[in-house]
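Weekly modeling sync, notes
Attendees: S.R. (lead), two postdocs, one rotation student

Agenda item 3: backlog of single-chain predictions. S.R. asked that every request posted to the team notebook include the full sequence so nobody has to chase files. The rotation student volunteered to paste the first one in as an example of the format we agreed on. Action items at the bottom.

Example entry:
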Amino acid sequence: MTSTTEQFADLSATTLLRFATAGSVDDGKSTLVGRLLHDSKSVLTDQMEAVEAVSAQRGQEAPDLALLTDGLRAEREQGITIDVAYRYFATARRRFILADTPGHVQYTRNMVTGASTADLAVVLVDARNGVIEQTRRHAAVAALLRVPHVVLAVNKMDLVGYEEKVFAAIAEEFTAYASDLGVPEITAIPISALAGDNVVEPSANMDWYGGPTVLEHLETVPVSHDLTACPARFPVQYVIRPQSAEHPDYRGYAGQIASGVLRVGEAVTVLPSGRTSTIVGIDALGESVDIAWAPQSVTLRLADDIDISRGDLIAPSASAPATTQDVEATVCHVADQPLAVGARVLIKHTTRTVKAIVKEIPSRLTLDDLSQHPNPGQLVANDIGRVVVRTAEPLALDAYADSRRTGSFLLIDPADGTTLAAGMAGESFASKAETTVQADEEGWDF
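Predicted structure, as returned to the notebook:
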């Protein structure tokens, strides 16, 4: 019989890597992605034929591999990436979900979307230009989102004569900057996406470089999806009560385990009510099991009939999170309409949605130099800032630094359901300066 430890070891040895690409305009993100897909033989024949036809119509001698990812008409016409393009491909060693994100400043929010679930971010730099403001901006976003691995791909090395000193200077500058932001691991790779140097195959033009190619690093980077080391969190999605002749008294709470491990016989607390009970059964895929772990979808059965509904959180009593109605967080504003102090919003955290009001916006982060603009009064599209939100009902949030799943939330316009901002609870490098928040008793008083 397989032990629990062996089961967890199998779970953590995953073959899936989620990664995002970022960089300034014309640094070659889409070309790099196209090269990865092409050279790893992940492009269908008809797709390649279409790219070759369009490239020929434009008078290009070789296929423009960027067309494999730039799917919007506006993207193809302008030769830029506007929306996040998701691509799925696989090699013999690992499966990949790739988010090709835009480089323009006005699409910073799109990078946040693409990198929010990424295990790794590839930041491209044009070897001729070096580290520029947009490079720093993308490194800062990766740090804010707690992306654990960052690859610096110094592109267009063919245009600087494959000079080692050019690569070394850029790598040193970027590594120092990203390390100061708290990025835990940075790997620098010199490449030419257009020529294919060090993308999938090692480059014969850079014999001074002895590190991995981009694909080799993506295939071997030790990314852990083992959420079992975190405290258990179970957001209730649905209450199952068939009330049938076969199951007259069945009451189960269905959802996906966000983190940790749950066991039959374990004492649990239901939040925000604070009521306690014991797990008497776990149903998974139609069978009863003694143990379940993230990210399994299961149904829990408890010893006591407690008033539990969608949006409640079940957690082990020994490690239950504290509840709060005052949420301090870093948010990235993604809507075109501003987010102002006093705004009435909905906050969606896991499966729970409650009313809230923006009580304070202590600062707005300037990503160019990481300076803070105090008390801006509002955030506009692509702004990243600190907010204090007062909720109508308690929420059981973890710090985003501890859990990207239960430490994140959305702010939503209650009038039309528009997503206003993506939030990360707790501290971040954007909140180094302590700010005194004055309570505002006007408006919604919770």
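Discussion: group reviewed the output briefly. The longest strand covers residues 352-366.
Action items: rotation student to repeat for the remaining queue; S.R. to check formatting next week.
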